[in-house]
Specification:
The protein is α+β, with helices and mostly antiparallel strands. It has a single domain, classed as Immunoglobulin-like (Sandwich). The chain has four helices and nine strands. It has a five-stranded mixed sheet with strand order 4-3-8-1-9. A four-stranded antiparallel sheet has the order 2-7-6-5, with no helix packed on it. The longest helix has 14 residues. It starts with a helix and ends with a strand.
Length: about 180
């Protein structure tokens, strides 16, 4: 008897039409916005990676620098070619320390504002005593990283040069050579 009652209730529910009431009043009109420009799916940012060869010396105070424009919230990353491995450059994100005998420490570092950057060496000893391998013909790469790249991709390892290049969609052919002299 219960099965028949359940079957009857089921058929009754399926046979009832959907209930709708009268349509409500029209809402107030909204404000028209300004139409934006149609764009592409991706964002193309030009000349984000620069490379140059520098020599740190007593004459330049063991530092190089340059004027440039960097937007508020943007970042600047500096990488130093640390070595060659199987014909490929091994890039290290600055700062980097070198520990010598007897507690001597050399640091490659950088600083920047929205209008300039400076890459420099410092140590707890007389830097003029360094061998040329530490000061001469040092290849550096500078990456201007707009803030939206960091915000949207917070899990990217910004100390990994290859990961940063992939993040910004650039390759070796996109790197712009600069002269620091």
């Amino acid at each position: 008897m219960k099965k028949i009652l359940y079957l009857f209730a089921f058929v009754l529910v399926l046979s009832l039409p959907a209930c709708e009431g009268p349509e409500g009043p029209q809402g107030p009109p909204g404000l028209d916005g300004v139409d934006g420009e149609d764009g592409e799916d991706g964002i193309e940012v030009l000349n984000l990676v620069f490379e140059g060869v520098v020599t740190f010396s007593e004459e330049n105070d063991f530092a190089i620098g340059s004027q440039f424009e960097l937007g508020q919230g943007d970042n600047l990353l500096v990488f130093l070619e640390w070595a060659q491995a199987e014909g490929n450059s091994l890039w290290r994100h600055l700062p980097q320390n070198v520990f010598f005998d007897e507690g001597a420490i050399l640091t490659y570092n950088y600083q920047y504002t929205t209008t300039f950057f400076n890459v420099f060496m410092q140590g707890n000893f007389d830097l003029t005593q360094l061998e040329p391998e530490w000061t001469d013909n040092q290849r550096i790469r500078i990456v201007l990283l707009p803030g939206f790249f960091v915000d949207e991709n917070a899990r990217v390892d910004l100390s990994d040069f290859d990961a940063v290049m992939e993040l910004i969609g650039k390759d070796e052919s996109d790197i712009v050579e600069i002269d620091f002299d």
